[in-house]
Design brief:
This protein is α/β, with parallel strands linked by helices. It folds into 3 domains: 114 residues, Alpha-helical ferredoxin (Fumarate Reductase Iron-sulfur Protein, Chain B, domain 2), CATH 1.10.1060; 172 residues, FAD/NAD(P)-binding domain; 152 residues, FAD/NAD(P)-binding domain, CATH 3.50.50. 36% of the residues lie in helices and 15% in strands. It contains 19 helices and 16 strands. The radius of gyration is 23 Å and the shape is globular. The termini are far apart. It binds flavin-adenine dinucleotide (FAD) and iron/sulfur cluster (2 copies). The site of one iron/sulfur cluster has 14 residues, from helix 6 and helix 8.
Length: 475
């Protein structure tokens, strides 16, 4: 260990930009054994590991790095697996620069952080290859059953941990495949779909009952589900797209980011997607303008490149330093040919039947707003035009109106529309109804959804145990 003064930071090689822009496979080649061992050996085994403190799961990072450096990979896997239900997924898509790696002391000393995420991915990918990933074995059968609404990372984590405790677990999702945004939001070049599907299959094989194509609010009310199960977890994510207010926004060719990404992900599964086949959600040969500066916008621009767009531009109203998306993703996008137009916002969309162009206002950064970030304001007289045949709106998402959709007006929500929970019990205003993930936090990260899934499982288990005891006493 402590080899960082001699051994430099070395991330797994990326495929050349030209090659990777032609397909939807992951761009990183992954570590080979000797590299994973070498890079793990750079860790200085801090007594107070800031990396782990800044990992939402508090993963035992220095311990599994040491085991990896010593070639004890199976033990490294077991330790890594003890705190996470999907380490290979977090290793791929966590914004490590803001979490574990961004807080590594070696980074602060100018040597470059330990490449924690890539090692984490390597450990569990190897475990899958070697057959070390154990099937899900349910604990002693309990008579209580749980209904999970939403099969994203929060819901799947609950399903995993509650089924392991012996509960009967039913997962309801309106989509035809499980995984939430892991399946239909995040593109394959960040997270290949077989990586998600093998996790879902493991749960199914372990007895988790999935109800695909089941939309709560359409196929059952929340109350009906409460009659069927002893406890419910709402893990529905956030899906209401933020709107752009500008003339011409309703023109054909101006589309929602998630419609666009879902169509592309469905294509990758080999599904027939009419809106893609008709060209309306296909960027091939088009001049594409994406509006937004977060993860979703980054995924849209890079998807458009892979579909063979004639040009891809990203409009963002702040500058590079103030964007919410990961700098790593901006770099990847630039390498693949995306042009970022910083400090710019759409003012109007032109075109008779379909969009043909965007009128863009130049922005400048004014005084800090309530969030402490400098607020963008238009720079008068600096408008310009961009050619566009496809405009993708990627301004982020708010919660849907769950009390109305679920026919449950007594379900309490915050002023942002997120489901209100008691932070000690993680229970909502309804007895036995818990909530986790983006629907509680607002749009966040996969690793936080996993953390919430872990926490809510613990609280719900305690609540169910107490309930069962009380029922026995009453009987
Ligand atoms: P979701 O993953 O949204 O899953 C919710 C599920 O609930 C969905 O399957 C939905 O179909 C289902 N559902 C909703 N309503 C109902 C209903 N009424 N009945 C039945 N089912 C319902 N995070 C990262 O950490 N790294 C990234 O690189 C990253 N990239 C992203 C890219 C995009 C394009 C987007 C949109 C988000 C990205 N995120 C990323 C954020 C991350 O995906 C989310 O924070 C995470 O998926 C939230 O998990 P969740 O389980 O709360 O909800
Ligand atoms: Fe880092 Fe995310 Fe893994 Fe935690 S889960 S160690 S933050 S990559
Ligand atoms: Fe190792 Fe960096 Fe974590 Fe310290 S902060 S334990 S050096 S990975």
């Amino acid at each position: 260990m402590l080899s960082f003064p001699q051994v430099g930071q070395d991330y797994p090689e990326k495929r050349a930009a030209g090659e990777r822009a032609g397909d939807f496979a992951e761009i990183s080649l992954g570590f080979q054994t000797f590299k994973a061992e070498e890079q793990s050996s750079r860790c200085s085994q801090c007594g107070v590991p800031y990396c782990a403190n800044h990992c939402p799961l508090h993963n035992h990072i220095p311990d599994w790095l040491r085991l990896t450096a010593e070639g004890r990979l199976r033990e490294a896997y077991e330790l890594s697996n003890a705190t996470s239900t999907m380490p290979e997924i977090c290793g791929r898509i966590c914004p490590q620069d803001r979490l574990c790696e961004g807080n590594c002391v070696i980074e602060f000393s100018g040597h470059g952080a330990v490449t924690i995420g890539s090692v984490e991915k390597y450990i569990t990918d190897t475990a899958w290859e070697q057959g070390w990933v154990e099937p899900l074995v349910p604990g002693p059968t309990k008579r209580q059953s749980i209904g999970v609404i939403g099969a994203g990372p929060a819901g799947l984590t609950v399903a995993d941990l509650m089924r392991s405790r012996g509960y009967e677990v039913h997962v309801y999702d309106r989509h035809d495949r499980m995984g939430g945004l892991l399946t239909y939001g995040i593109p394959g070049f960040k997270l290949e779909k077989h990586v998600v599907m093998r996790r879902v299959d493991r749960l199914r094989d372990g007895g988790v009952i999935f109800h695909e194509g089941f939309e709560v609010g359409r196929d059952a009310t929340l109350d009906e589900l409460r009659q069927r199960h002893d406890a419910i977890v709402i893990a529905t994510g956030v899906y209401k797209p933020r709107a752009i207010k500008a003339p011409g926004i309703g023109a054909d060719g101006v589309v929602e980011s998630l419609d666009y990404l879902t169509a592309s992900n469905r294509q990758s599964f080999g599904d027939k997607v009419e809106a893609f086949d008709s060209g309306s959600l296909d960027a091939r040969g088009k001049h594409v303008v994406v509006v937004g500066g977060g993860d979703t916008a980054m995924d849209c621009v890079r998807t458009a490149v892979r579909q063979g767009a004639a040009s891809v531009r990203c409009l963002y109203r702040r500058d590079r330093a103030n964007m919410p998306g990961s700098q790593r993703e901006v770099k990847n996008a630039e390498e693949e040919g995306v042009e970022f137009v910083w400090l710019s916002a759409p003012e109007a969309f032109h075109g008779e039947e379909r969009v043909t162009g965007v009128q863009v206002a130049r922005m400048r950064l004014g005084e800090p707003d309530a969030s402490g970030r400098r607020a963008p304001e238009p720079d008068p007289g600096s408008d310009f035009q961009l050619q566009a045949d496809l405009v993708i709106k990627a301004l982020g998402f708010d919660p849907e109106e769950l009390p109305r959709l679920f026919d449950a007006p007594e379900l309490s929500v915050t002023r942002w529309g997120t489901v209100r929970v008691d932070h000690k019990t993680m229970m909502t205003s309804l007895d036995g109804v818990f909530a986790a993930g983006d629907i509680v936090r607002g749009a966040s990260l996969v690793v936080w959804a996993v953390r919430d899934g872990r926490d809510v499982s613990e609280r719900m288990h305690a609540w169910l145990k107490a309930k069962s005891k009380m029922e026995k006493v009453a009987a």
